[in-house]
Amino acid sequence: MTPFGQAFAAIVAKDLRTELRTMRSLPAMVLFAVTTFVIFRFGLDRTALSGSLASGVIWTTLLFAAVLGINRIFLPEREEGGFDAFRLAPVDRPALFAAKAAVLFLYLAVLEVIVVPVFAVFFLQEWSGLAPMIVVLLLTNLGFAALGTLISSMAVNSRARDLLVPLLLLPLVVPLMIAATGATTHLLDAGGPSYDKFGTWLLVLGLYDGIFCLVGYAVFDFLLED
Amino acid sequence: MSGRGLGQLSIATALVLLAGFGLVFFWVPMDAIEGFRQKIFYLHVPLAIVALCGFMAGGVEGFRHLRSNDRRHDANSYVFIHISVVFGVATLITGMIWAKASWGHYWVWDEPTLVSFLIVFLLYCTYYPFRYAIEDRDRQARYASVFAITAGAFVPLNFMAVRMAESLIHPRVFATSQGGLPGSMLFTFLVCLVGVALLWVTLVKLELLGKQTSGQVSKLRRALEAEGFGKSEPTGTVGRRIAPNLEAR
């Protein structure tokens, strides 16, 4: 294994182990999402959703749940000296970026595995659109992971950490949200899924992911210097 | 020294802008459908173009700052973004006036160009609180550059993504296949574009000169204090400024 791969694997394993032992992020994200569904259930006063309303509800909820996770992804590094240890270690700095993005991606995947079925039980009458939605979820997770890691590492060393993450992240993910809701809307139509413009939206998602993975990978070095 | 040539530049800016507005009001033909209110086009569109280019230039300067670790590039990046935000406010205001006259509403939500400009504008508004939240000067400059690069890459991407959710009341004068603008309008538009771009450059230079001067003043004041003058008075270091520091080191 290359040194990069070793560092990557070590950080991912460390983060997953910490999360399994402390349960700092994931339970909060899941609980938040489910509570938000309940609020939408009464706020919208509907028992069944479809089309653009359904995709709006699921994506808004996932976005805000993701913000909770993004806020905390670098917190242990800062509070318990992880950054210093990493700076001392003779490994490539982008390994930390890649590992944190991978961990965030996994968190989001677990979150969605739990929360999307809950959403379907709460609101959907037609379930056949959920299978193709997996592609949209995966691509959007990648975008969240890359951008979230970048923003979180920028915000974690500032005074107004919890405030800055949503402030910086929300405008940046608007295109991601447009593409994700655009792709999901017709999948959740009441009469079964249809694939109008589906490919185009996936292309936008892929392009967005690609660009921000590259940007994050390129600039992350400078966020670790001290 | 960024102050050199500022006088001539201001005069050139004023002349080109005056010439542009002269052409707009006395020479260029009335728009067949929109009539007189279309003339705001010659102000609104150049402002928007210059603001967006300024944002991206801020990203390029941020990149150069990270490459060279030279404070001047960070200052450039900051001032580029700052002036472009001001131009962004002007774009939104002129756009809303035009929209009210033309469409009957100040704001139309299903119009991609408006929405994408608003998103970019909101994103760059967070540049100030972000800078302010970081205490260490070097780190502040570095993080601000990272922000400028990320946001600069975001600008074209955002326009593309929002445009995919297409709707077409906003005029696309340059992209349409049936010819776009007639020659006289294009010429007037280009004169106005050059004028607004010159205005941007002038304001950037003025702002940079101001930063440099205040940096020198505080340096001199510190030197005086070190000599023992004016020690009893509270000095100008009250409160931190987010603008990059341009003192000579």
Oligomeric status: heterodimer
Given the helix and strand composition of chain B, which structural class is it? mainly alpha
Rg of chain A to the nearest angstrom?
A: 18 Å
Poorly predicted runs of chain A are none
How much of the residues of chain B is beta strand, in percent? under 5%
SSE ordering of chain B: HHHHHHH
Largest sheet of chain A: none
The portion of residues assigned to helices of chain B is over 70%
The structure class of chain A reads mainly alpha
Sheet with most strands of chain B? none
CA-based shape of chain B:
globular
Secondary-structure element string of chain A: HHHHHHHHH
Uncertain residue segments of chain B = none
**What is the total tally of β strands of chain B?**
0
Count of domains of chain A: 1
| Spatial separation of the terminal alpha carbons of chain A | 29 Å
CA-to-CA gap between the ends of chain B?
15 Å
Mean pLDDT of chain B: 81
Mean pLDDT of chain A: 88
Largest contact between protein chains? A-B, 33 and 29 residues
Helical element count of chain B? 7
